[in-house]
Amino acid sequence: MNHVVAESIHCDAAQAGWWAAACPSPDPAFACAAREHQGQLTKPPGSLGELENVAVQLAAMQASATPAADRVWISVFAADHGVAAEGVSAFPQAVTGEMVRNFATGGAAISVLARALGATLEVVNLGTVNDPGEVAGVRRAVIAPSTANFCVQPAMNDVQLHAALEAGAHSVRMAVEAGAQVFVGGEMGIGNTTAAAALACALLGLPAAALAGAGTGLDNAGISRKAEVIDRALARHAHETSPLRMLACLGGFEIAALAGAFIAAAQARLPVLVDGFIATAAALAATRLNPGCREWMLFAHRSHEQGHAALLEALSATPLLDLGLRLGEGSGAALAISLLRNACALHNGMATFAQAGVSNA
User: Which residues are catalytic (predicted)?
Assistant: First the structure.
């Protein structure tokens, strides 16, 4: 690697392929007990809708009769994309590096939400064209200033891909050591809705028009241009048929880091709350690399970004919120943490019919 990696990210042959190691399954005995408990609470069965399902899922994931979402770890991965050279974003590429500093100094949306939640916020710089340098509160894991332009060549070589996957796994190890009960992955990178759409199109066998959206605010002409760029990239890399190669050719450092984090979280029995369009594209890639990780995913919201609904459907996912969000950063997932906490509070705190002396149906 020509660029200095500011922390130790080892990608030797002994580590390569860790993402394929088996994931445990959530504990079915705790799921069964949680469902039975829900049926005894002072409410009509099913009347709390998806909140009941969330509580049952968390109980099984945490192997606990009293599931919780009090200790939340949020990792925001930032990286730039070579495809930005194709004019696919309404914002200049310098914004990525500038936002890294904004995350760290507390001015970004996810920074505000993390403070409100009392969550741990980790910012990880994987490589930006406008490098902010050493910034307090930012973990430097720089792979390169950006990926390559995937209209010309693969976005990442194997060493870069493995480094990005490992960066995500490293964040999960930190979260586990900190006692996190839920992991949230966020992202920042000008051009990353293009990369996410291209990757998802390749994984799902869809044309660009099905998934290309406004991203940072493109008009209809800009969206059409983005779709044309994606279709060119899909044609160039059409011979790649493995999910790993698709991720290398069409993804981004932060998208690969998210995929690695989601797999590592499942391997560590840590529930994941998936954010919006880009995070869901990473989740789709993660499930193609390791299908067992799907059982450890909850889905925060349905993004306003075109194509997110198709990704949620492909993952058989039921999102908790539909607020027209399309910011990224993990912001939608941060908002949904309150629903997880309330689902747990209801599950753990409501009286049963017997305890309250209330007649059951």
Answer: 329
Place of tokens 């747990």: 344
CATH topology of domain 69-340: Rossmann fold (3.40.50)
92: tokens are 């200049």
Which pTM does this prediction carry?
0.94
Residue listed under structure tokens 């992202």: 187
Rounded to whole angstroms, the Cα distance separating 180 from 75 reads: 12
Kindly list the catalytic residues.
Answer: 329
Classify strands 272-274 and 120-127 as parallel, antiparallel or unpaired. Answer: unpaired
What does the pLDDT look like over 122-175, one tens digit per residue? 999 999 999 999 999 999 999 999 999 999 999 999 999 999 999 999 999 999
Contact 332, 276 (CB under 8 A): yes
CA proximity to 124, closest of 179, 72, 186, 173: 186
**Fold classification of 28-67+347-356 (topology level):** 1.10.1610
Q: Which residue, among 277, 229, 328, 311, has the nearest Cα to 221 in the 3D structure? A: 229
